[in-house]
Specification:
The structure is a homodimer. By secondary structure, chain A is α/β, with parallel strands linked by helices. Chain A contains 13 helices and 12 strands. At the A-B interface, helix 5, helix 6, strand 2, helix 7 and helix 11 of A face helix 5, helix 6, strand 2, helix 7 and helix 11 of B. The structure holds a DNA duplex.
Chain lengths: 367, 367
DNA sequence: CAGAACAGCGCCTCTCGTATC
DNA sequence: AGATACGAGAGGCGCTGTTCT
């Protein structure tokens, strides 16, 4: 897909050239208008805009000049019709206001554009089956060639499971249990790895009483992190000091403070995201507990803010942009007719060690 | 634009009905396939899907049944071509990770969909003229009928000013000085009103030493709020206790604390957004100043978090969704051929009084 | 109320050509 | 002669209009 610069005010140009006295100003120029102006056949123009090999440089130059002066732009509908493909993919984003889905969409956007595909995306916040189905229909009505579903929560996954996908699709979701589709394509950040790295890190620091501030239970990531947290502790013969569910917001992190700390003996808290960690740190400072001297706090996401928290937050970096790009890459391969086997893409998160976690305090707090 | 429910697994249906032994499975069904199955002409099918009045209920029912069993979906490219319109509008969003642009886009999305228009949106973060121009070309290549530009910062506005817009467009931006276009359509939340309401509120509470935590200077909203802040104070014969520029982030709010408070005598701080207010409140608690007893802090945006801050934040509510909807409404009117005069749309913000601002302390702090 | 017939939207593709080195 | 560079023309993509029965 090549991009040309429009000479200003040449958009609604007259097409009087080819239609004599009609002078239908306001109508976009035609491929034949270009041909006429360049003194070539419409064939040649077509060959130029489609990068056909056997075109002489000077002819190409003449045509491109004509294109520029007319402000010609191929009619995408006509192209789609003749080629029998729209060059468009559709995306549904659930909870687009959240860090992960938002950045994943960014990656999806970049990747599809770079591949020469148009993207139509729709947001979903509503959990109703009807709303989700309407979003799907809305995309299918555009004859998208493929579908990318950013589905962090269960409701959207459930709809996908029930109705199935009839065109090439990729589902970006952690909780894969709901996808029974045989030839399904699925992508996610490896939550288990990220969680294990973090919990192992806390264990190495000597912590044995670790609490978990989890995300909402209808989020796949939250479920996975919580489950892996418990499993990793269990593998070391430990049990959680406490588990409190938040809603990803800083406020919920603040509010979860007492449940995580009071009487639990926790010396470290693994928060399922950075924002809640922020709120929790705030709570701890309010009750006079120092981070990390009294309590270690770690997060997940590596938001821009996390580097500047006080103290700077130890967290897990997830490359959502890359996730989106990988997903689109594989989706496009399928659209172009690659094999159709079940496939699962994973990106690896990485531990970002800053200073919000430290060794287990020598003397236990009394509380 | 009506939405139909696809019977599962009926998408890639055979079209053997009309093409005999060819049985081109994998090809989407045709309007003629539907006609044949329903025992009517393709004309009638066209009339049904376009809600033509003169169709008998039973005929309509037969056709709709055929549509359903075949999983027929009109080819959007063919429709666009025949109608000579794409039914698509394009949107560019600068800084989509920020609260305002993000929610404005949400409104744009909802409004265009409700009006039966498809939406293509692209994100811009880069300030380079090339990147912005490419985004524009990308949308124009899709033959969008109109353009919605969410332009909170100056660089995008500058590009718009320089190249002009050749198709119906609406610019959502506060800083209108850069738009010389004669018949331009522009929309924004009334920043001056919001700022005045807030500053007046602080003045009524008796504050005379008020500091301002502003947003980045290349943001239109930030410039407007700052200018109005200064003007409103001046109208009361007052000068700012301090002005510090942040970058919208909580961290910058935290970092701005000393500059706003130390030695300024400020008893109130007007933060240009809620997130910075959050950081500032954190700073204040760290240095032992109570909000609002010692220092009043107010924000702007009314983010979901603001209601749960401690103390709950007094702020200004901006209805970005409505802004987006209004903008699209007026844009569509232009696309449909309404008058083309210069037009400016404004939505009114409202004051949300919570408890982070109180009366001026009786005794001045010593610092 | 609905069918038949046809033109047309703008572009692509394919088949033949002719022309030039 | 056998390449390469381009033209002419037709048919088709799926749907929408209109007009005439």
């Amino acid at each position: 897909m090549e991009l040309r610069v429009l000479p200003s005010s040449s958009w609604r140009v007259s097409r009087g050239i080819s239609r004599g006295s009609e002078m239908a100003a306001g109508t976009a120029p035609n491929i034949r208008d270009v041909a006429e102006l360049a003194g070539v056949s419409h064939q040649t123009v077509s060959r130029v805009i489609n990068d056909h090999p056997s075109i002489q440089p000077q002819t190409r130059a003449r045509v491109e000049a004509a294109i520029k002066t007319l402000g010609y732009r191929p009619n995408s509908a006509a192209r789609s019709l003749a080629r029998m493909r729209t060059g468009r993919i559709g995306a549904i984003v659930d909870s687009p206001e959240h860090f992960g889905p938002m950045n994943t969409l960014r990656g999806v956007e970049v990747a599809s554009r770079r591949a020469g595909y148009f993207l139509s995306s729709v947001s979903v916040n509503d959990d109703s089956v009807d709303a989700i189905n309407q979003s799907l229909e809305f995309l299918l009505d555009q004859n998208v060639e493929g579908l990318c579903l950013i589905a962090p929560r269960l409701p959207l996954l459930e709809v996908i499971r029930r109705r199935g996908l009839q065109i090439p699709s990729v589902v970006i979701a952690t909780d894969t249990a709901h996808l029974v589709d045989d030839n399904g394509l699925q992508a996610s950040v490896d939550q288990e790895l990220g969680t294990r790295m973090m919990v192992d890190y806390l264990l190495e620091l000597g912590h044995t009483r670790i609490a978990h501030l989890s995300g909402p239970h209808d989020w796949g990531d939250a479920r996975s992190r919580r489950a892996t947290f418990e499993a990793t502790l269990a593998a070391h013969g430990l049990t959680p000091a406490a588990i409190v569910e938040g809603d990803w917001s800083p406020d919920s992190g603040f509010a979860a403070g007492p449940g995580l700390i009071e009487g639990t003996g926790a010396t470290a808290v693994f928060s399922a995201n950075d924002q809640m960690a922020l709120g929790l740190v705030h709570y701890l400072s309010e009750v006079g507990l120092r981070v990390p001297d009294d309590v270690s706090v770690v997060g997940f996401d590596n938001t821009p803010e996390s580097a500047h928290m006080i103290p700077p937050l130890t967290t897990v970096r997830q490359n959502f942009e890359k996730l989106g790009e990988m997903a689109i890459g594989s989706l496009l391969a399928r659209i172009k007719g690659a094999r159709v086997e079940r496939e699962t893409l994973r990106t690896q998160p990485s531990l970002v060690v800053r200073s919000s976690a430290g060794p287990r305090p020598a003397t236990q707090r009394s509380r």
